[in-house]
Amino acid sequence: MSDEFSIAVDFVFESLKARQRTGSSLKAELVALESLLKILPESATPSTAVASKVSLGSAAAPVVFAPQPVQPPPVSSTALPVVQFPALPSEVDDGGLQERLAALKVAVSGCVQCPNLVSTRAQVVFGEGNPRADLMFVGEAPGPEEESEGRCFAGVDGALFDKMLVAMGLSRDKVFLTTALKCRPDAPAGSVRARIPTPEELVRCLPYLAAQIALVKPKVIVALGAGAMRGLFGSTQTAAALRSRWHDLQGIPVMPTFHLNYLILNSGIGEKRKVWEDLLQVMERLGQGISEKQRNYFLKSG
């Protein structure tokens, strides 16, 4: 087993072990994690258990896991898994942050947990940005442009997103960008609309997002659209119902707002102002200076 893969898998596993200590259910996530071992060539699979190489602080004991891959249990359409975000570890060491993110990216890029996504994807979109960012943006899933470019928020959506960052006095290299699902959802042939991720796909992929959040340690998260909130909180409400108020993700404040594509399709000044008001709250929470010009963006008189 390569050191990079071992470190990545052990880190995600340790993140999930935190839930076990709280007494919450771990079944779906542990099965998904053990499936990661299928990424390794059969000849590289160790014959003995592998001890964790990642330190998450004094509260986290070393983890040992069996190397035999476990197939995710079949899920019937009448008993869909509940989308529940994994517990974040209470302590994560800062040392080797770049290396651990790189190792995690290796594991995510080789993930084979969702065969339908593996068979249709061009590449996995891991995320990008400042690994020590105070602000993280989370979307639902990559679209065709994101998959083609291998980066979050590309194409027309990306151009709008970059304008939003500039208005906030930020840029991509000052924030961290990622999505709840790392692969583009496969759509039926001839479909013109994107497919939303299934609960099974989210359950399998969310440990990766949890590991990203635990490593980056953002002070604030912006959830772009109802799909992102579904991944983070299991919510089934619309973005309109969720936006403009803070939500707590295990101690991290989360501000939901509209999806970028919604703004493109609903480009009136009133909808832009709603999103901007959400972002103003984010800027205030982060202690950013806000100019009078910024406060007046997208006001009819501004």
- Please identify, by name, the CATH architecture: 3-Layer(aba) Sandwich
Largest sheet: 6 strands, mixed
CATH topology: Uracil-DNA Glycosylase, subunit E
How many separate domains? 1
The strand order across the widest sheet is: 3-5-4-6-8-7
Order of helices and strands: HHEEHHEEHHEHEHHEEHHH
* Mean of residue pLDDT values: 79
The CATH class is identified as: Alpha Beta
Folded structure, characterized:
There is one protein chain. 41% of the residues lie in helices and 10% in strands. The chain is of the alpha/beta class. It has one domain: Uracil-DNA Glycosylase, subunit E (3-Layer(aba) Sandwich). Helix 1 crosses helix 3 and helix 1 crosses helix 7 (199-216). The radius of gyration is 19 Å and the shape is globular. It starts with a helix and ends in a 7-residue tail after the last helix.
Question: In brief, what are we looking at here?
Answer:
41% of the residues lie in helices and 10% in strands. With 302 residues, the chain is α/β, with parallel strands linked by helices.
